[in-house]
Amino acid sequence: MTAAAAIPSAPATGFADLHLHTLFSDGTFTPEELARRGATEHLIAMALTDHDTVEGCERMGKACQSLGIEFIAGTELTTDFEGYEIHLLGYFLDIHHPKLLAEMKKFQITRQNRIKEMVARLNGIGVGLRVETVFELANCQSPGRPHVARALAQEGFCASMDEAFDRFLKKGRPAWVPKHKVSAADGMDLVHEAGGLAVIAHPGLNRCDQAIPQLAAAGLDGLECFHTKHTKSQSEHYLAMARKHNLAVTGGSDCHGFSKGKPLIGGVKLPATYLDILKRRRHSVSI
Ligand code: AMP
Ligand code: ZN
Ligand code: FE
Ligand code: FE
Known about the structure:
Elements: E1 15-17, H1 31-40, E2 45-48, H2 57-67, E3 70-81, E4 84-91, H3 98-124, H4 131-138, H5 145-154, H6 161-169, E5 182-183, H7 184-193, E6 197-200, H8 203-206, H9 211-217, E7 222-227, H10 232-244, E8 248-252, E9 258-259, E10 262-263, E11 270-271, H11 272-286
Parallel strand pairs: 1-2, 2-3, 3-5, 6-7, 7-8
Antiparallel strand pairs: 1-11, 3-4, 4-6, 9-10
Helix pairs in contact: 1-2, 4-5, 5-6
Bound molecules: adenosine monophosphate, zinc ion and fe (iii) ion (2 copies).
One fe (iii) ion binds at residues 76, 87, 201-202.
């Protein structure tokens, strides 16, 4: 008797956005608004990846569920690889994992202290921004430079957020303060301990290609090949690297709200077949 042929599963259809921010970090949409916008874009799956926090995931999960959208609990961790800042996306996280929450608390405390230091430096060069203004505007545990930039624009110290970054906040400018980071290896371990998969975000923006083989050997799960700021040739380059190092392929808009008058969500749509491959990796890890 011959063995029955394996029934091929139907190819996954639809599109996902696996890189999104809300006002729980430096985005401007609530989780509910973001989920609604995902529905308008006909997304079948969305991952929330706020910087160094998972606080928005519960609300976003509920909002997605009510709209029939698959939700993936995630984060975007600030990590370091040999002096390069690498943003590490964690997916399918246990958002109640005690160690994950403890580590995130450390990130958040240092982010809040960094805001105070940035404002002190601004005050030192005669820009009279009040730290309370930034914290009121940020109204979250994981504040960042965009909140300072928005406050500078709101209070009339700059004409726009771009100007605030250019004059004061980007690296080398007077109010730039380095961020707390964990090593990329420790970040990956943390994500794995919390039941998740670890993916390098927007590698094209970080000049960190040399990190990919090493981190792949150390258990990296994927590479964000599709991103709003990647050129077509960058996406192709990272697709080839993902193939070479046996990494799953992910993608997302990195929407923080409105950008130049329109929201980025919907601008990068990851075909669902890639999400399926990512999920298979999850099962092979947990078995
Ligand atoms: P931080 O995590 O505090 O270092 O801030 C990084 C965030 O600032 C990133 O998520 C970027 O989206 C945002 N950002 C960087 N440059 C600019 C810019 N010129 N205008 C607006 N946002 C920016
Ligand atoms: Zn951000
Ligand atoms: Fe990032
Ligand atoms: Fe991001």
